[in-house]
Amino acid sequence: MPVICAETPTAELISAIQSAQNPDGGWGYTGRSSWTEPTAFALLALASGGSLSNPFLQGARWLEQTQRADGGWAPHTSVNISTWVTAPALLALLETDRARSLQSAVNWLLSQTGEESTLVDRIRRAVLGQRLEYGQETTGWPWLAGTAGWVMPTALSLLALEKAELRGRASGTRSRAQQGREFLLARICEDGGWNYGAFQALGYQANSYPDTTGMALLALHGSSSAKVKNAADLAEKQLPNCRSAQTLCWLRMGLAAQGRSPAGAVDCPRDRGKLLDLALVVLTRATEDGRARIWGAL
Questions:
Q1: Fewest CB atoms less than 10 Å from the CB: which of 19, 115, 147, 273?
Q2: Rounded distance, CA 139 to CA 298, Å?
Q3: Which residues contact 39 (CB under 8 A, 6 or more apart)?
Q4: For 10-295, CATH number?
Q5: Which of 123, 93, 124 is nearest to 108 (CA)?
Q6: pLDDT tens, residue by residue, 245-276
Q7: Is residue 112 within 8 Å of residue 157, measured between CB atoms?
């Protein structure tokens, strides 16, 4: 296991996250160049304690300044298209009162759909004589606009829309959110968990992965589906075999969202230089301690 210090206080981890903040207000994965994903998760980690400190406010300003005109975010300022990172950015900014930024981000998410569920793609399949596989009629979110829906961007987009609705920052999102849930339920693999995308490819059944299984379980909190219960059972079996901090964190947060309580405290990553790992450890502890307001309705 890539962990060594379960006893490290969360306050110390938050201090390490604050120390890693770049002069421009954002955070990077490891270096001094700010990226949207680590900045969003760093902000969520800082907000998980309920205190919006100066580093949080500086990071929120960086996100606001890097939001694109279409309402979404690019992974980095050197990229000129909005992508899936809009979902974690919205989740983070929902801890603020930036109404203009929030509404345009919600609108961007609502405009996105997986290519496989569009009318154009269905016509293309019909012309080519390709059968529409089970679940392809459901609508998830893609990594990149105009491409197929995947589990991780769908799970995070679903959480962001739910949180926006709950915080009174959006309305009319419930239908789209329900489509996202149906997408996830239709993508369950034969073993009961989730792969990154489809449950099968080229006629072969796909294996599930712990991190995507955890993300889907987190997004499907409150579900009464027997499929979700079975997936949580699988997640408990996968937990002892986790070999990365991020995988461990997503799986434990997914289990917490389903009312499961794994034994022991979540440990810290050995490599303290990985900002995203530190942020996810803080978020996991908050989620398991019942302080999961950062995810919305948990």
A1: 19
A2: 23
A3: 26, 27, 59, 62, 63, 89, 92
A4: 1.50.10.20
A5: 93
A6: 899 999 999 999 999 987 766 665 655 568 99
A7: yes
